Amino acid sequence: MTRSPRWWPLCLGLVAGFPASAVELTPWLKFDGFGTLAAYRGDDPVAGARSDQRTSQYTSNKEWRFDGDSQLTGQFTLNPSGPVRGVLQVLSKDDVTERFKPRVEWLYASWDISADWTVKGGRVVAPVFLLSDTRNVGYAQTAVRPNQTVYQINPITSLDGVNVNWAKAVGGGNLSFEAAFGKTELNLTSGKIDVKRTSSLALKWSQGPWTVRWGRSDFRLDGSLPATQAALNALSSGATACTNCATVLPARFAFTDIKGHIDTLAGTIEQGDWLVQAEWTRRLSNSALVPDIQGWYAQLGYRVGDFTPYAAVGGLKVTEGPLGLQTHPAAPASAAAANAAFEHYLRNPNDRDTWQLGVRWEVRENFALKLQWESIKNTRAPFLGMNSVIYSPTTRPIGTYIGPAWDGKMNVLSVNLDFVF
Fold first, then answer.
1. pLDDT digits (tens, 9 = 90+) for 18-64
2. Distances (CA, A) of 362 to 359, 366, 369, 371
3. DSSP 49-60
4. N or C: which end of the chain has fewer CB within 10 A?
5. Cα(19)–Cα(31) distance, integer angstroms
6. CA distances from 420 to 96, 103, 175 (A)
């Protein structure tokens, strides 16, 4: 039986009692809050789906789960009307290790140097994607959650460092620039990532209904992924008669000082009742531990009174090159099959296509109820050993699973109530 998060009854009571606007506690202290009550269900009996890489559990076999997107966040702003401000944002959302234990998402001092320039220092947003500022604010988004064909590629939401913003009216539109530099660490379903240094740069141009955004983020990190390390150890032991593993694996799988970057391009159009949103991203690195990958999605919505039906398509493709593992010619056929399975597993070719249909209903001011159906089709068989947004059991010789194979297809149904107060 799936248990609801322990704070749900409290959250429901708070939602019913809070006013539908930010609370100015005093002239120098303001409180904002937002949250989501969520339920989702995957229909496949073998594989499962998570709402995020940092979500501890997955849904499968038509099991309803109530963690996933569910969250409650409070934000305090000190001296909200002044040029120098302080911000504390505390987030309670499912996490691989801490579950719903509240964590500090933002904690920074902000200074408006001029009408155009703002500097923030402390724990600040990591401005990687179009929706980075509102990634945890479901109410600010049309769909149930940011599309994972893009947002899976970088799970980092905040960093400890500095954020600089510049914005100015130029040529009939608005041009803005955002840069951030710092470090962070996070736990994923596959292990732990220690980001020693990351920097992001984003340029955004808005004019009328149009917005275009370009971004680049560079990173340097260490990774601790136990399952991957175990697979490498098995190959290096000679158990599969691999003849080139001793040279290929150390060259391709660095666990420390991994360097790479993420490129992004996004655009939105809000023309009358039409809503269009699209993003593309690509990640490259010098280690197959953080494989080369690219993803995209396009979303179309249309407002009809209090309802906004929408549809989206997306794709994810791993572009990491083959390892080229070789088997000793005198070894049995089972050894060659094992090496082929290990190569597929280590490259993690989680390629997939997705289709979404959903509707957003403005139930009342500052409350939105969303229903979304998503079809997921993984496109590169065999579908084994995935443990991210998509989960599938690891078969022999890598794992111990001996049940029916997954055909690469599943459907996920989500129901979310988003609110701000």
1. 444 567 778 899 999 999 999 999 999 999 999 988 888 899 999 99
2. 10, 8, 7, 12
3. E-SSTT-S--B-
4. N
5. 12
6. 25, 19, 28
Q: What torsion do the CA atoms of 353, 409, 157, 40 make, to the nearest 10 degrees?
A: 130
* Bond prior to 382 in cis (omega within 30° of 0): yes
- Give the tokens for residue 40: 């989702």
Is 340 exposed, middle or buried, given 0-12, 13-18 or 19+ CB atoms closer than 10 A? middle
Entry pTM: 0.90
Contact in structure between 294 and 262 (CB atoms under 8 Å): no
DSSP string, 62-88: TEEES-TT-EEEEEEEESTTSSEEEEE
Cα–Cα distance, 191 to 223 (Å, whole number): 8
Strand ranges, E, within 53-209:
63-65, 71-78, 84-93, 103-112, 117-125, 158-170, 173-188, 191-207
Structural domains in the chain?
Answer: 38-69+114-420 (2.40.160)
d(CA 342, CA 249): 12
* Residue among 32, 20, 124 at smallest CA distance from 78: 32
DSSP 405: P
CA distance 65 to 378: 22
**Is the CB of residue 385 less than 8 Å from the CB of residue 343?**
no
Which tokens sit at 45?
């009996």
Contact by Cβ (8 Å): 142, 308: yes
Tokens of 346: 């280590």
Own/partner pairs for 249-257, CB < 8 Å, 24+ apart? 249/323, 252/287, 252/288, 252/323, 253/228, 253/287, 253/288, 253/289, 253/346, 254/286, 254/287, 254/289, 255/222, 255/223, 255/224, 255/225, 255/229, 255/287, 255/289, 256/222, 256/223, 257/196, 257/220, 257/222
pLDDT tens per residue across span 377-394? 999 887 877 878 899 998
Backbone angles phi, psi at 279, to 5 degrees: -145, 150
